[in-house]
């Protein structure tokens, strides 16, 4: 795995899951499950709090996470992995682990992953148009989009591909305007 994906605890767990999924020929299923799980965590304040809480014991946290996975119909290797991670007291690292796993999968498939932040959820057509635009800018490489919603950016998009950052958010434009106005005064 690449160094960026394997750094720290999240990377080591992601590497182990990748190897298990590869051996079980279930990379696509695990990727789909982890994508669903990350989306649920991004959209649910309660799930995010459950993952981050140092107050909730490992046993209770593990049971709650497995119940969430059951409700989302996530089973098999992904369910076992999440249960093991929670039992080991590493639930707060689950999103980072999922991100590292998905980044490694994309890298091995020759895909580029773009992290896209918007103020409102993007429609499938908007995501496809963005993917096509990024593909042409990046020289034809297949682009998978990791979409997140952050209302704080007010509007526009923040797109990060590798070390490149394209920030067309209204929040950033207002900050630049504020700095320009301070310079004039």
Automatic annotation (TrEMBL):
State the InterPro entries in the record.
ATP_synth_OSCP/delta_N_sf (IPR026015), ATPase_OSCP/d_CS (IPR020781), ATPase_OSCP/dsu (IPR000711)
Question: Carries keyword rRNA-binding?
Answer: no
Task: State the annotated membrane topology for this chain.
Answer: Peripheral membrane protein
Q: Which UniProt keywords are given for this protein, alphabetically ordered? A: ATP synthesis, Cell membrane, CF(1), Hydrogen ion transport, Ion transport, Membrane, Transport
User: Which Pfam family name is an example for this entry?
Assistant: OSCP
User: Where in or outside the cell?
Assistant: Cell membrane; Membrane
**Chief place where the protein resides:** membrane
Q: Please name the GO terms that the record assigns under molecular function.
A: proton-transporting ATP synthase activity, rotational mechanism
The entry's cellular-component GO terms read:
plasma membrane; proton-transporting ATP synthase complex
- What domain of life does the native source organism fall in? Bacteria
Function description? F(1)F(0) ATP synthase produces ATP from ADP in the presence of a proton or sodium gradient. F-type ATPases consist of two structural domains, F(1) containing the extramembraneous catalytic core and F(0) containing the membrane proton channel, linked together by a central stalk and a peripheral stalk. During catalysis, ATP synthesis in the catalytic domain of F(1) is coupled via a rotary mechanism of the central stalk subunits to proton translocation.
**Family of the protein in this entry:** Belongs to the ATPase delta chain family.
Kindly provide the name given to this protein in its UniProt entry.
Answer: ATP synthase subunit delta
- Organism lineage: Bacteria, Pseudomonadati, Pseudomonadota, Alphaproteobacteria, Hyphomicrobiales
